[in-house]
Give the backbone structure.
Amino acid sequence: MKNSIKSTLVLICVCAFITAALAVTNSITAPIIAKNEEAAANDALLQVLPDGKNFEKLDITTYSLPATVTEAYKAESGGYVLKLETSGYAAGLVIMCGVDAEGKVAGTVILSSGETPSIGGVAADTLAGALVGKDAAGIDGVDTISGATKTTGAYRAAVKDALNAAIILGGGDVDIRTEEEILNDNLSASLPAADGKFTKLFITEVITGIDAIYKADNGKGAVCVVGEQFIALDENYNVITEVDAELASTVKEQAEKALTSTAEDIDLGKYTGLPSALLSAKLTASGNYVLEMRASGYGINGNHYIASGEYIKIRVSMTADGKIIDCLTISQAESKGYGDACADEKFYGQFDGKTQENYGTIDAINGATLTTNGYKTAILRAFESVIILKGGAE
């Protein structure tokens, strides 16, 4: 019993001694470790802002900064360093960007990345040099790196966010809204009754004087985009935005024609020779065609180990004489960062107004030849389908 108590007391004393020793060691090493970490962090800051001195970490919660900004440092000598997190080809692209006292990029470096080393990684290295000395207006002029559209776009956007953040931190004012946010804000301001929810109308009638129409999801009207103007209509198609009488009359007439267009299903079984790419077809009361097409992009024709096996689905409206009224990508499962750009209006919107003679004169998706060619082939099949459908059933 006495030996057991003695052993316990010895163990307690040993543990107490070790604890005390560790505490002393920590009190000695902790400041050294902290100092080394601070030096490493300072080196990273100096890497992107070489002329910076005495960096102060800022509380970014007190500012309205772009969402990509996760940390901000102010240099006593002038300028800022911003840490940003975004998604390129993959999520987790972390960038450190230095902005000098003149509001230009002093340097950038990637802290971590999930980009493909041979493509996105190389692109990032190239961009790092190309962006130095650029201000916010000059960022968009930096060329897209071939085969790395997603990485280039994400990198440029993040650096622009850093430049805008530096302006805000310096007491300036800058609009940091995305294009989608700006559009929705304009739509909402024009038609508050819509409660901020709109859907772009797929156009099936030939209209003039209107660039786009956005329907209120709650049925409270629509907003027509005419150049830089946003013109609202109520649920009875009356223009409620203050514009001149002639413009109001044109907008009402054209918008009502588009918004009230109806179409009936066409029985494809009554026709022979229709392309297999044609999934369904409708005929509008005015004689236009609305076709659902499938395109064999990378999802079908790509590497069978990684291709999705899914077709791109497209909606096309076309006049009886073969002119595209509107085009829309309904669904796609193409490669992220490459072929998935077919779902961007900047791509499929190029087919609006095209005919069979010139539909091929569109800008291809960078690095996505199979997607581009498959999409164009489906558009060609749409032209061929209208010719057959116009010819009548068997």
The chain has four domains: 1-43, 55-169, 179-259, 263-391. The chain is about 35% helix and 20% strand. Residues 166 and 172 are 9 Å apart (CA to CA).
